[in-house]
């Protein structure tokens, strides 16, 4: 039988055929033994390969898991770094605002003292001028006295603004509509706005809740922001567009004044709320308007911010809190996308 190594010749003679038979049987036995050894080795090798393959597969799975873990760790680290950078920026901003608040508070104390010291002499000067006008008949002297009176009144007005900036009295608060305060200011300036070719777009949220504030003080803030924008656009382009928008953001009532004027230079942005700082010519402004606005909004537990890009315009943002009593209260009246 072909390939059958179990079959022996079995010759037992002593002649050459017997010797050849025994040699053949021995060779067959050795071949069978070798074949069995090869078979066992092959089976053993297959087991080793299978075991090694399984081991490599498990190792590969572990490596893949480790890669995923490291990938997630890297993503978490990147996210944490981004959050840390944002937190650092917010911290820097808060520190800057705190320093600005402390600076303005210190200046306010100084201004208050100076204003009170100036107020009494100015009142005396004004009184003496009026008294002298009653007795002086010379026309030239009367004109000089009138000029002196005008200068005294101007100085008194500056002192009044100083006291307004430095005052610490509590505002007379009531539930008011921010929309109504804005509409009143726009109506008040309607003639000047038309004269200066300024278009006003009012995007007032009709569902804006009322807030607790001093109506007159809030109008003072809005009027100052409106006039500043009006003058900036008029002086730069002879015309302009101012968008006034109100909306509720969470527990905050946000009001924005966005103009298309010349913008504010970047190097003075951090000074615009400082008392006496102004870019207007001498005699055209006291530099107290935005400082007073800042103080009023601070007294109302809000904040006023400015963003600007030279050549494109400026946005002033006033944020006031939605007080607990007004959160579910009467909505303020408004008009969406109303033009005047």
**SSE ordering:** HHEHHEEHEEHEEE
| Cα-to-Cα separation, first versus last residue | 114 Å
Mean pLDDT, all residues: 81
User: What Rg is obtained from the alpha carbons, in whole angstroms?
Assistant: 45 Å
Largest sheet: 6 strands, mixed
Oligomeric assembly: single chain
- Structurally, the number of domains stands at 2
How would you describe what is shown here?
The protein is rod-shaped. Helix 1 runs antiparallel to helix 2 (about 140-165) and helix 3 packs across helix 5. The protein has helices at about 15-135, 140-165, 180-190, 190-195, 215-235, 290-300; strands spanning about 175, 200-205, 210-215, 240-250, 250-260, 305-310, 315-320, 340. It is an alpha+beta fold. The strands form two sheets. It has a six-stranded mixed β-sheet. A two-stranded antiparallel ribbon has the order 1-3. About 20% of the residues are buried. The model is unreliable at about 325-340 (pLDDT under 50). It is built from six helices and eight strands. The longest helix is centred in the first third of the chain and has 120 residues, at about 15-135. It folds into two domains: about 1-170; about 175-340, Histidine kinase-like ATPase, C-terminal domain (Heat Shock Protein 90, 2-Layer Sandwich), CATH 3.30.565.10.
């Amino acid at each position: 039988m072909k390939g059958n190594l179990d079959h022996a010749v079995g010759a037992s003679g002593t002649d050459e055929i017997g010797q050849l038979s025994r040699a053949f049987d021995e060779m067959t036995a050795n071949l069978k033994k070798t074949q069995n050894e090869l078979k066992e080795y092959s089976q053993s090798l297959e087991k080793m390969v299978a075991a090694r393959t399984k081991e490599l597969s498990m190792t590969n799975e572990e490596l893949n898991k480790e890669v995923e873990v490291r990938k997630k760790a890297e993503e978490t680290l990147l996210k944490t770094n981004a959050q840390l950078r944002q937190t650092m920026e917010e911290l820097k901003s808060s520190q800057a605002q705190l320093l600005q608040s402390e600076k303005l508070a210190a200046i306010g104390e100084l201004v208050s003292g100076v204003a009170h010291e100036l107020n009494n002499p100015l009142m005396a000067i004004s009184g003496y001028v009026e008294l002298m006008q009653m007795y002086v008949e010379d026309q030239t002297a009367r004109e000089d006295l009138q000029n002196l009176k005008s200068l005294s009144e101007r100085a008194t007005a500056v002192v009044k603004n100083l006291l307004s900036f430095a005052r610490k009295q509590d505002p007379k608060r009531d539930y008011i509509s921010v929309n109504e305060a804005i509409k009143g200011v726009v109506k008040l300036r309607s003639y000047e706005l038309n004269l200066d070719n300024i278009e006003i777009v009012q995007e007032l949220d009709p569902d804006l809740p009322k807030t607790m504030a001093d109506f007159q003080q809030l109008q003072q803030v809005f009027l100052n922001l409106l006039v500043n924008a009006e003058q900036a656009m008029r002086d730069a382009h002879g015309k302009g567009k101012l968008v006034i928008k109100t909306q509720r953001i969470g527990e905050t009532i946000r009001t924005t004044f966005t103009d298309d004027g010349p913008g504010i230079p970047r190097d003075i942005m951090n000074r615009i709320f400082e008392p006496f700082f102004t870019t207007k010519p001498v005699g055209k402004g006291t530099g107290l308007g935005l400082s007073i606005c800042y103080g009023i909004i601070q007294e109302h537990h809000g904040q006023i911010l400015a963003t600007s890009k030279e050549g494109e315009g400026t946005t002033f943002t006033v944020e006031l809190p939605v007080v607990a009593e007004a959160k579910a209260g009467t909505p303020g009246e408004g008009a969406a996308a109303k033009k005047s």
